[in-house]
Amino acid sequence: QLQLVESGGGLVQAGGSLRLSCAASGRSFSLYVMAWFRQAPGKEREFVVAISNSGGNTDYVDSVKGRFTISRDNAKKAVYLQMNSLKPEDTAVYYCAADRTTTPSRYQTAYDYWGQGTQVTVSS
């Protein structure tokens, strides 16, 4: 099992940056694909980005390509989301998720473990 705890959210002006972190506890972190999802007010939770076990393969939703960067440190059992050029439409609760597999997925149902979320608010 994994326990996931997100941090790094906050309030930022449009055009600004934030770096989210997701710390994992438990065994075999390197066996898990990791992903970030987000849920905006009044909307369904949506996929943002995923990273393979080794970090060599990533998949971004089009709306964040070129602005967001996912990375992971298996030795530290952590995954990060660097968010640049933030827009008001990026405002959401951001969730970290883990899937014990080798292929990143965009489907929420593929992910077995979830964090509690961290709020990101981008003001215009």
Question: How far is the first residue's CA from the last residue's CA?
Answer: 40 Å
| Radius of gyration over C-alpha positions, nearest whole angstrom | 13 Å
In terms of structural class, how would the helical and strand content be classed?
mainly beta
Gross geometry: globular
The overall pLDDT, averaged over residues, is 97
Describe the structure.
With 124 residues, the chain is an all-beta fold. 0% of the residues lie in helices and 51% in strands. The chain is globular, with a radius of gyration of 13 Å. The protein is built from no helices and eleven strands. The protein has strands spanning 2-7, 10-13, 18-26, 33-39, 46-51, 58-60, 68-73, 78-83, 92-99, 113-114, 118-123. The strands form two sheets. Strands 2, 4, 5, 6, 9, 10 and 11 form a seven-stranded mixed sheet that branches. A hairpin with a 6-residue loop joins strand 4 (33-39) and strand 5 (46-51).
Write a concise keyword list for the protein shown above.
single chain; about 120 residues; mainly beta; seven-stranded mixed sheet; four-stranded antiparallel sheet; about 0% helix; about 50% strand
Describe the protein's topology.
Blueprint: E1 2-7, E2 10-13, E3 18-26, E4 33-39, E5 46-51, E6 58-60, E7 68-73, E8 78-83, E9 92-99, E10 113-114, E11 118-123
Parallel strand pairs: 2-11
Antiparallel strand pairs: 1-3, 3-8, 4-5, 4-9, 5-6, 7-8, 9-10, 9-11
